[in-house]
Amino acid sequence: MENGIEEKSNETEVFWQPENYYCPRPEVHSAVILLNNGISEANVKSVLQWWCNASLRICVDGATNHFHHLMWQQQGAAACHCPCPLPDVISGDFDSIQPDLLKLYSAEGVTIVPTPDQNETDFTKAVRVAASLIRERQTSVNHILVVAGSNNNRFDHVLAIVATLYKAYQITSTPVVVVWGGSLFWVLGAGRHRIQVSAELCCNPSSSWCGLVPVGQAATATTTGLKWNLGL
């Protein structure tokens, strides 16, 4: 079944079309999570498009501050082709959200989900919240898109995002993909994967790159179609 990003064509192969994130189709349903790392200027139009088309919208703690600024900045602008919807949920330990915004959105009917447990990051807890809501509401969601921004010079935060992405693979069967600046990254689980990109992208020196980063436990990987393949 094709969902625009992942297509399970059989039991052993997963088909990915990452470029489709930037051209979402009506039949593709997503949950969007905004993290507290800001929204890069280059991604504003895409973020608004993802947000407006999402089936589930979650702001994580201080991401609400960035969302609020973006909403009022873009409301009615040509970049946003629909009224900017409010978050369905605001989650986190609330150490960075502006208190008046928390009260404002609560009064507007937004569900507030405190996640005070400090043994996990707000991102990890937000994935758990999203997975729970998808089950409870029986929402049709093909993937969870996490906007991590790029306005963060904390390398430990970057590693925490990667760690959560790996853990998310165990929390939910819904694919979780992170947007970080001009990059998309996700976990390739055990089995066969095929990633399709356009010829235009492959021929663009500024974007014709990819990385395979080992996380978790040791694994054997073989690739084809790359300039420098693994395991051949």
UniProtKB/TrEMBL annotation:
Keyword set, alphabetical order: ATP-binding, Kinase, Nucleotide-binding, Transferase
InterPro entries: Thi_PPkinase (IPR006282), Thiamin_PyroPKinase_B1-bd (IPR007373), TPK_B1-bd_sf (IPR036371), TPK_catalytic (IPR007371), TPK_catalytic_sf (IPR036759)
Molecular function as annotated in GO: ATP binding; kinase activity; thiamine binding; thiamine diphosphokinase activity
GO BP term, example: thiamine diphosphate biosynthetic process
Keyword check for Cytoplasm: no
Pfam family, one: TPK_catalytic
Thiamin pyrophosphokinase catalytic domain segment(s): 49-170
Sequence ranges assigned to domain Thiamin pyrophosphokinase thiamin-binding in this UniProt record: 193-230
SUPFAM superfamilies attached to this UniProt entry: Thiamin pyrophosphokinase, catalytic domain (SSF63999), Thiamin pyrophosphokinase, substrate-binding domain (SSF63862)
Signal peptide extent: none
Protein known as: Thiamine pyrophosphokinase 1
Protein source organism: Portunus trituberculatus
Gene: TPK1
